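I had to read the description of the data format several times before I understood it. In essence, backbone conformation is discretised, so a fold becomes a row of integers matching the chain in length. I therefore recommend that a typical entry be quoted early in the introduction. For illustration, here is how one protein appears when written out as sequence plus structure tokens.

***
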Amino acid sequence: MSSLARATHARIDLDALRHNYRRIRALAPASRVLAMVKADAYGHGLLPVAHALSGLADALGVACVPEALALRAAGVGGRIVVMQGFKNADELAAVCAHALDVVIHAPEQLDCLASCRCGPPEGVAVWLKIDTGMHRIGFAPETVAEAVRRLGAMAAVNPRLRYLTHFACADDPASTMTARQIECFDATTRGFAGERSLCNSAALLTRPDAHADWVRPGIALYGASPIAGRPAAGIGLHPVMTLTAPLIAIHHHRAGETIGYGGTFTCPRPMRVGVVAIGYGDGYPRHAASGTPVSIGDRPGAIAGRVSMDMLAIDLGDADCRPGDPVTLWGDGVAADVVATHAQTISYELFCAAGPKAHRKYLSLCGIKK
């Protein structure tokens, strides 16, 4: 942690992480689990999370080759899948040298693979990405057969291909888009040998018919729900990150006084208002509205006024507190999904924005360590 690190603290409960993994495993017992640890493990810390999942997850998923190389440098073995694949010949050389799996989603990657002479003895492990409607990356269905043919002719490629797609609307169980994507994927891959992967966290919960050979949980691992209106606790998930910051001042305001930039919050009554040392400079969402929940000890509180760069104000209610006490922004007692709704965002963004800027401490049965 830099000497310029600010006052926020993120407690990362690795036992909760492992609990969530086992819960996911129970929901998809016939599938293997590709655990997503990209984006610094959604702000929770790439290396500690990867080590905590070692021996549990069947594979780890990262976004890019540098993330995979960081895992290998830290001694993480086993299958690592690079979801964006390689971007140039140098990255392909690193893929070969470190036995990484790669997602192939573009013709340019096929061209690069065709000229590869450095593949491992068993060949480069390829997951072929099919665009069934997300329209982000992947081969169009009508081009898949040719891509499979080309890969099968490459000496550097392991002949055992895997196939995957990504759902656009799995977080909306009422959408018909997911069913159409499943149908497209099944039709496109019919007749091809190889394992399949379709489900992210949301589809894992709502589409057991699509669990296939591999599921790819992300946000569910970290104790948040991917589906609006379906609380994580009701799914059996535990929060992994608890974000806190210290209370630095307490003021008493009269009814009618306003708080913060723009005077957007007017005290409806005489109020005790606390100032907390966290703001959007620390990754807390600027658009969190007045009323966004926090907790002080075992008492509820709520944001009052606009979030500033370094501070925010909260209604302390009748909480017994004093400057220096920690305020919980999300985690134990305050669901990140609820905070995200108040901020018109998603829990993914909360974790990725605030986690890397906080002092992270890791809690497990072995105790707390920095």
Remarks:
- The mean pLDDT is 95.
- The chain has two domains: 31-226, 241-369.
